Each structure stands twice: as C-alpha cells, then as structure tokens.
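Predict the structure of Class I SAM-dependent rRNA methyltransferase.
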Amino acid sequence: MYPSLVLKSGRDRSVNNRHPWIFSGGVKQLPKAENGDIVEVLDNQGNRLAYGFYSPQSQIICRLFEFSSLPIDFSQPDYWHQKIQSAYEIRKKYVLTAQTNCCRLLHAEGDFLPGVIADLYDDLVVLQLLIKGSEKIAPHIIGGLQKIGVRYIYLKNKHNPGFREEVVLENGFLTSNTLQDSKVVLENGVKFAIDFEKGQKTGFFLDQRDNRALLQNYSQGKKVLNAFSYTGGFSIYALAGGASEVHSVDISKDAVQLADENSTLNFGKDVIHKAIAEDCFEYLKNTQEEYDVIVLDPPAFAKNAKAVPNASRGYKELNLKGIKKIKPGGILFTFSCSQNIDRDLFRKIIFSAAADAHRNVRILHQLTQPLDHPVNIFHPEGEYLKGLVLQVE
Ligand code: SAH
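Done. Here is the predicted structure for Class I SAM-dependent rRNA methyltransferase.
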C-alpha cells in the first residue's frame, strides 16, 4: 500500500485525462510521505485514480507514471523493466539501424517515466535522473537498461544550486564497466565524437537528427553557415551533402573545437570547414559573408513563461540578422527549443523578422522533434522543438 494523496473535488478531471502532473493547488489532503516516495492519488470520493512520485517542495507536487485503480506493487523490477523495454522496442523498430546507433531511449513523460532521460550512444547510456522519485528507482532503471544490452551507464545530473529536488547521486558511472575517452557514434552514417562528461546536456543534441538529414539534401555545392553549431551536428551533414564551404559558429571554444575534430573524423583535414568561437549575434552583425544556407539553432531563450516577451525579441533580432545574410534564393533553417514559445508564436516571430527584412519568404518545411523524443498526447507540454525551413527570395 502506498500513502494517499487526495484531490479536491473537481480536480480529478486532468488525472482522468491522463495528464501526468498534479499541481499543489489541487490537493485536498497531503500524503504522509517523503520527497520521492511513490504515492497513490485518490479523487475526492476516495477512488484510486493513479500512482506517482511525490515532490512536496515543487509546484508540480506529484508526477504520475501509472493510471490504474488496481493495487500494484512497484517494488517488482519487472514493472520498470517493461516500461524500458517498450520504449526500446520503438527505437529498435524505427530509429536504430546499421547507420544510426544513437538515440534518446527514455524521454521522461513522453515515455511515461517522469524524471528520467536516457540517451543511448551505442552501448553507453547517459542518464539524467531529474527528480527524487526517479532517483529512488535508479536500481530498477539500471537493471532495465542492462537487460536490453546497455554496457555502460553514466549518470549526468544537473546539480543546480537551490534545485529543490534534492537529487544526491554523484555524476559518474553507475556500472562497473567504465569508459575513459569520449565515445564515437554513428548517426545516419556520419560519425560524431561525444564528450559525455564535459559536453552540454548528455553530450549531444539527438533531437535534431531528422532535421540535420534534411539539411544534407539542401547542401550540394552550397556555402553554409551553422550558427549555434555546438559540436557541428548540422555542419557535418552539410559537408556530407556536398557543401562547398561550411562555417560553424558557437560561443563555446570546446564545442567548436570538437566540431573541427568531427569534421576531420569524417572527411580528413582538407575539407573546407571553418570553426569560429564567437557570439552569433556579434558574428551576424559584423560578418561580410553571405550564405546560400543558414542554420539558426540557439539555446532556449525562454526558460519560463515570464521570459517569453524578451525571448521573442531575441528570436526576432536573431532571425532578422540571419535573413539579411542569405543570398537571394537561399535557405534558412530556423529553430526554437523553448517549450514556452509555441508553434504559432514562433511563426509570428519569424513573420515579423521577414517583414522587417523586406524579403519574400516561403515556408518549405515545418519541423519538429523526432520520434525518439515522443510527445505523450495527454501532456502537450512535452512538445518543445519547432523549426521552419524558409526560402528567402
Ligand atoms: N545545433 C546544435 C545544438 C545547438 S545547442 C546541434 O545540432 O548539435 C545551442 C548552442 O548554442 C550551444 O552549443 C551553446 O554553446 C551555444 N550558444 C549559446 N549562446 C550563444 C551565443 N550567444 N552565441 C553563440 N553560441 C551560443
């Protein structure tokens, strides 16, 4: 039996609709439980609706992972192993091939496992346990990953000062098998060195795989700028697609250095790749270069709802600067990964940048996150990546 969290009358609707979050304002009676404990969720009449991880200090006071009125014993490893197996099956069927051995394996709420992110790099998983509840089930997660054949598991948590979840596990290997160096993976046949220890997030941005493959088709003979390049994801695909020249710009020296190494890893020293460590706003303002194709993939400018107006101005300024550097008839790949800026707003922002640039613009593609970053249909908040491919006359 698990401690009970009782909802206020009328607050069971979202749970009946399988939304995985319970906000503290909807709770009539708190459970006698500690941070990270599994609790059962009851409606005002005492009917059991779901189970979740309790987060007493968070506004999202409970994150649900099971919608059932039945008694369930979550100390059974099989329960968790099955969740991991079912997420793995989808990736095995639709993503992993002889050409691609990396993908996101567990995408938190998108895979009905709140607080768990697992990125697969060949036989290595880089794991993030973002809430106390997911930390408490770590042994089951590790067991489940090993069961599907993962050899190395590296924990890479964010330890933000003041972060209320009190996740205490230290970053490092959770398996007795360890790796020294960075890991080289294959994505659509191109190679990337992943610095899982010091790199950003889990070491690589797996969510742009499909969009990078699309860029490859637009690159033959083109001069390409990859702005906010990180370790050169889009750049390497552009080179693979026959670009005549590629410039990667990122504010992080380590990232652009790895972009250069990735270019050499795939194409040798002679290739025309230039890595530039600079602020992209400054670069776009000052450069005399013009490009056939530009990619703009900045970090999330709006980390919360309050930041949306400022972030919108940032996206507009960036896109206006980008459009100005596109040769007539050229192509812009532009993205936002701010969850708080929805698809419609993003399109309006780009509209206003295009209007200020006084150029004709066509939308050729509307892009999103790939299937290994699935959106739980009951949790639209999980949709975060938006992109537009524009032809600029
Ligand atoms: N497109 C990349 C991922 C980009 S992540 C890929 O496919 O792998 C965002 C990147 O923006 C990070 O590498 C970060 O270092 C960089 N960044 C953040 N602010 C920046 C700025 N003002 N100018 C240039 N780069 C910046």
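The two ends are 65 Å apart (CA to CA).
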